[in-house]
What we know:
The complex is a heterodimer.
Chain A: H1 10-13, E1 18-23, H2 31-41, E2 51-55, H3 85-92, E3 96-102, H4 110-127, E4 134-141, H5 152-165, E5 172-176, H6 181-209, H7 220-236, H8 240-254, H9 264-284, H10 288-302, H11 312-335, H12 346-367, H13 409-424, H14 428-443, H15 454-470, H16 474-491, H17 494-511, H18 514-524, H19 533-547, H20 560-575, E6 581-585, E7 593-599, E8 603-605, E9 610-618, E10 624-625, E11 628-633, E12 643-645, H21 656-661, E13 663-664, E14 669-676, E15 686-697, E16 703-709, H22 717-726, E17 749-753, E18 759-764, E19 769-770, E20 774-783, E21 789-798, H23 804-808, E22 810-813, E23 827-836, E24 841-850, E25 854-870, E26 873-890, E27 893-901, E28 909-911, E29 916-924, E30 930-939, E31 944-945, E32 956-958, E33 963-971, E34 981-982, E35 985-993, E36 1003-1008, E37 1012-1015, E38 1019-1024, E39 1028-1030, E40 1035-1043, E41 1049-1055, E42 1061-1064, E43 1068-1073, E44 1078-1087, E45 1091-1094, E46 1098-1102, H24 1110-1114, E47 1120-1124, H25 1132-1136
Parallel strand pairs in A: 1-2, 1-3, 3-4, 4-5, 6-16, 8-17, 19-26, 28-37, 39-47
Antiparallel strand pairs in A: 7-9, 9-14, 10-13, 11-12, 11-15, 15-16, 15-17, 18-20, 20-24, 21-23, 21-25, 22-24, 25-26, 27-29, 29-33, 30-32, 30-35, 31-33, 34-37, 35-36, 38-40, 40-44, 41-43, 41-46, 42-44, 45-47
Chain B: E1 4-8, E2 14-19, H1 25-53, E3 57-63, E4 68-72
Amino acid sequence: MSPTQWDLPPxxxxxxxxxxxxxxxxxxxxxxxRAIWDAFCANRRADRVPISxxxxxxxxxxxxxxxxxxSYEWYIxxxxxxxGWMNKHLNLVPALVVLFYELDWDDPQWKEKQSECAxxxxxxxxxxxxxxxxxxVVLIQKxxxxxxxxxxxxxxxxxxxxxxxxxxxxxxxxxPHTDHLVGYIIRLENAFYEHAQTYYYxxxxxxxxxxxxxNKTTHQLLFVRHQFKTGFFSELKQDTQxxxxxxxxxxxxxxxxxxxxxxxxxxxxxxxxINYKICRLCFQHNTPLDAIxxxxxHIDLCKxxxxxxxxxxxxxAWMSKQFQSFGDLFDEAIKVGLTAIQTQNPGFYYQQAxxxxxxxxxxxxxxxxxxxxxGYPTPDPLDTPGAALDFYGQRAWRQGHQSIDPPxxxxxxxxxxxxxxxxxxxxHSVRVQTDFVILILFSSKDPVKKMLCPSHRHTxxxxxxxxxxxxxxYTKALKLLDYVMCDYRMERWWSLLTSILGTALKCSYLxxxxxxxxxxxxxLVGRASTLHSEQKSRIEKNLIKVLMNxxxxxxxxxxxxxxxxxxxxxxxxxxxxxxxxxxxxVQDYVPFVQCKAKFLSPSFHVDDPVQLNVYLRxxxxxxxxxxxxxxxxxxxxxxxxxxxxxxCNSKDILEPSIQENMCxxxxxxxxxxxxxxxxxxxxxxxxxxxxxxxxxGSDSGRCVYLNWRxxxxxxxxxxxxxxxxxxxxxxxxxxDSLVNWDxxxxxxxxxxxxxxxxxxLQLRHEPPALNNxxxxxxxxxxxxENTAAKDVKLTAGLKPGQDANLTQTxxxxxxxxxxxxDSHPALLPDIPIGDLQPGQKMKKSLxxxxxxxxxxxxxxxxxYTMNTSVEGKEITCKCHKDETVTLETVVPFEVxxxxxxxxxxxxxxxxxxxxxxxxxxxxxxxxWPLHLVTSQLQLAPTMAAIDQPESQVEExxxxxxxxxxxxxxxxxxxxxxxxxxxxSGQYVVSWKRKSTCAETPVISTVVTLPHVxxxxxxxxxxADLPSFGRVRESLPVRYCMQNRTGLVQDxxxxxxxxxxxxxxxxxxxxxRILPGAEQEMLYNFYPLMAGYQSxxxxxxxxxxxxxxxxxxxxxxxPSRIFVKPQGRPGDASIAAA
Amino acid sequence: xAVCVAVIAKENYPLYIRSVPTQNELKFHYTVHTSLDVxxxxxxxxxxxxxxxxxxxxxLLYPTEDYKNIFFKIKHGK
Lengths: 1137, 78
């Protein structure tokens, strides 16, 4: 019994091709024949007709055809399908035999050759006696044939040859051996294909014709056989649709057969074959769902057909093969383009195949464990007279037997025994190997092959791991199980995790792997394990043994031989010194000790001790002693303070309390508190718990460190914490009165922060600040410390980190007597203040000058050092206190400037050498009173004061909203021709806040005066007249006209009459004024009415400058005068006037 | 006959799992675990549309050799 007994025969699995035999070709010695043969069989592309060619000698003996049965009446079939049948029709009985013969139409020895050819045909025919196989003749000719009908000799001789050979015209071909050989060959083989199809058609008809002779009682097997045969012939004919139909019928018929123990295997074998054919064709027809449905039906129908109970392993082997073959078909289909989905993919079938294979092994274990003295029966009941069985699926010792009871019970027994003994010898590692190949296939990176979904893959890997375990390949088993373990742990499938941990523990025990053994044990006794407490107890006891450097008890259900070997390994481990210290990173497991570490606060002041608690809880069934607990912190200097250790070599004098302290009682939470003083250098830094180590065992025996990274927790704890936070219902009231485990949160890091300062910082100032002023902020520092604050330093000024421009436009100083400029910084760092005694106050003023308006933040930072004691330890603390203030800067006042004429009329331009007024207006915008110290007019060279300008606003105090005005009389000296505007100069206002002290510097604000338009006029006119007149009294008026050109000017002047005045003088005159000269005109006005009166209008027309309008000149002259009423008679003063 | 009932959390771990007492309870656990991928595929395939209709029956997942796996999706909370 070979391991391949259950494999499907290759002739079943291949695609049937029409079989055509070629004879008369000498492919070894004849180059022409060789070329013809190559053209037939070399490089056959998919578009060539599906034919399988074979070169056979001309006198080849074909399988003999048995004499045709004329009646089935007494015929009882011995089986369903003969083992040789498929091969016979694929490779032995051709559909067509082609005889190749070298003969040209004009061959001189035509007659002889013709009869030789006829003889050869006859030999073939004789050999095929009784078969429907066709015969064809191909004449290999050297000459290219003429077109049909033109060569009369050819057609004559062709028909003669046909007659001689008893061939139809369609079976004679000509193959000219010329350049286009392949073309001729393709035409030839297409013709052969037609002949072959005809042959298979007749075969189908022939098989079908038997049906009428069959009866249902005795010929049931033949119904199946004939349907299978028609299906197979249809496939050979490439009629796959009909083939599928016949196979489906055959499948139905095979299940109608009377099944009993003796023929069960035959029925299943045939059902498997037919099912394979159906599924294969369904995939080929691209109807995968049909294939899957058929396969499901097949499995449903067959899975209960176990047959002989003593040979149950045969059934599982067969089932396994069914799934595997279907998986292969599915996989093939996917390779040529079918898309698999998660629910339907080959992996699923492979997995089932593996599952049955496992079951087969188990059954084999149960059924084939014979006593060693049971020998293999002789003669071998499995020996067959021929090379193989006659019929598929029959027993070697009773071939052809079709009745219900075995013919010879003794033979039957021997046969079964032989099968069982054979099964026992099957090397299972072979199966594991093939499974492993499958695994590799499905876990490969190729996405097409990655068809198994993750959990399927896991299950598969578990199966394989267990296979390896049974095959005693523990290393491979562990490798697979370890991989899956992680995922089950992550997915929280504790039942599955426990199951594979159990296998893994056995593996590690049998291999004597101490570390693995400890790792698996500690998880198996922990809370993730679903084992019963007695099992846990056993494992824990073993674990304790290992910790004490003793040999653990073997795991149950281990192979006794292996256990013996394992014992030796463990004894070796015990004697082995040195390698007895292990560190197990438990973070990724669910160990039997849980650990949570927390700092009591997220931050500690440097003058408070840092406190942290470590909580431990054991989940194992028995109390557990440990010998050391140590916490590693990011700053290793603190580690020495965070250790709980058994005083070494002093076991006898141990106080009971300490001993209890080092013992973890199941379910009870233990708390270990640690306290240490942080170092002064760590202020502002983080302290982290980098790990927690729990030492089990002892230095003398074995010592195992359980190491938790960070503040503890394991693979399950984060989820547990989440669950706890979600649900109100706890696992009952906390048994431990101190803490509820679920509410303990891990806090693995803390900050060391500086001591709380005990100083006060008070700021006094008067906001807002005024632009450019020396703004005073007074800071009062008062110490409330109990001891002297040493090395007090003040940092004051603009707070860093604001807009960069503010640094350029803010300047600070501590000296209020000087004016800040660009050389002063924005921030004064670390101004030493000295020491502050308890209760002492210190006052400092900061002067800030803000060049631009807007808001700024000012910082006042006081730092100092002081000595204090923490936990009896003297430490020097640095303390600091910050105060900030946001300061707004505003402009102190606005300055408005305007130019007016001497008549206070607004001027848009001034005239050369004509006096005008400059008016300034200072409007206070400050919320605080402003003290104007002085003002100054700094004229440009293009401007001249008429008299010495003096400040008119000196020492004035402006309240908010008040304004101070000044007026300066100016004129513009002659300007070069072409100048249209001139600079006026600057106006400087010196001021300070009213509230500042005398030594505060005065701020000078410079206002640049606007440019003014300037014009030159040819004639200037002004009037001299008294400030008022009196009714009926003479009022002398003098007009002066000045020629401001270098030309002699003719001027016409008229005085218009007025109702209010009479006057004497020239009413209309024309005068000539020399360059630079001045002409005076005298008038006596005689007012007639009192009040403001318009003076008679003087019109001056410049003959040379008609563009200068009289109105322009009139602006220089007064237009009105106040006339007093006439005095009473007797009033001397008036009379005198 | 129902042979195994399992309630699975949305993170795919078992909240409750009970099966008829047989020798191989573990096999049922494996079967349930193996089905989860299919559940996930089904749920994601029908997606939102299904969630809106509150259609909770996921139907026959896939037939294994001996058992049929039928799943319901249950909404819990929001």
